[in-house]
Write a structure and sequence with these properties.
alpha+beta, six-stranded antiparallel β-sheet, three-stranded antiparallel β-sheet
Length: about 325
């Protein structure tokens, strides 16, 4: 396909990646001379009406969203050769999985900066009746702009679900018998094939918070079924038991997002963003206090619990 022109306007330059549904190319938009990304549905899937409909649903869902932290759809349709395509903006940079792999541990304030932008993208989607259902670090691009470092774009609404017109507000329904998503990031209600709402994306966000804090997934197993079973039945190990130096507030937020019962999670992505703002101010204030302390007061001494208790008794005496 390299070198071919799609819909008379997009010349395919090279392959970026490939998934179960399609191949992704870097391309040139001939009318404007700019770099874009083209996703083409695999040719052998063109006869599957369900998949073709799902492919167009991705384009329709993403095209409804208009926010700096969400990938922008330029065009979608069917080429002269019958190929289904989606044209979207080209986002330079690295995905969050690569950032985590190369730069862990991340400063907590940097992690908060990244997570807040993901929250804003989710809020835009949920406000427009779109549920992502496959949020993970590989679908979060991080790049540096002239006026901002670590600028986030949330990508790949490939299994996004539009709100059913006959459902209540913020309610989504999977197709009967179909479970979509990546097992490591799948909420308990998603695994059970229940009606979904925005809190299922917040659960996936909790997994990402856990990874940023520990560089590990909370649930791992030898099979997809084993991972899903743990999502349904096991509690995650608190991040402080793995990474040690983790802000308690971030750990608390992470574990709240990972609640098995969605009623125990925050109600919206904006609520999570507000809590992240509070934690950022708290961390900043704590660091300013430490900087203003005399040098003699900055010494950190490691003690066992019994030693600390003894020291406190001596101090009070």
């Amino acid at each position: 396909m390299l070198g071919r022109t799609i819909a008379g306007n997009f010349r395919l330059l090279d392959t970026i990646g490939q998934g179960a549904m399609g191949t992704i190319y870097r391309a040139e938009q001939l009318s404007l001379g700019k770099t874009v990304v083209i996703k083409l549905l695999h040719r052998h899937l063109l006869g599957d009406k369900t998949l073709s409909k799902r492919f167009h649903r991705e384009a329709r869902a993403a095209s409804m969203l208009n926010h700096p932290n969400v990938i922008q759809i330029i065009d979608f349709g069917q080429s002269d050769g019958g190929l289904l395509y989606i044209a979207m903006e080209h986002v330079p940079g690295r995905d969050l999985a690569e950032v985590l792999f190369r730069e862990y541990p991340l400063d907590p304030r940097r992690a908060i900066h990244l997570l807040r932008q993901v929250c804003f993208a989710l809020d835009e989607a949920h406000a427009n009746g779109v549920l992502h259902r496959d949020l993970k670090p590989e679908n979060i691009m991080v790049s540096d702009r002239r006026n901002m470092t670590d600028f986030v774009k949330v990508l790949d609404f490939g299994i996004a679900k539009l709100q059913d017109s006959d459902s209540g507000p913020n309610t989504f329904q999977t197709e009967a018998g179909v479970v979509c998503g990546t097992p490591e990031y799948m909420s308990p209600e998603q695994a059970r094939g229940e009606k979904l709402d925005g809190r299922t994306d917040l659960y996936a966000l909790g997994i990402i918070v856990y990874q940023l804090l520990t560089n590990r997934l909370p649930f791992e197993a030898d099979s997809a079924l084993g991972v899903v079973t743990k999502h349904l039945s096991e509690k995650p190990v608190p991040p402080t038991r793995i990474a040690g130096e983790v802000p308690r507030g971030l750990e608390s937020l992470c574990l709240t997002l990972l609640a098995k019962d969605r009623r125990m999670r925050p109600t919206s992505a904006l609520d999570v963003a507000a809590e992240l703002d509070r934690l950022d101010r708290e961390i900043e204030a704590s660091r300013l206090r430490l900087q203003s302390m005399p040098e003699a007061d900055k010494t950190i001494v490691e003690m066992r619990a019994a030693q600390l208790a003894e020291a406190m008794v001596l101090r009070s005496a």
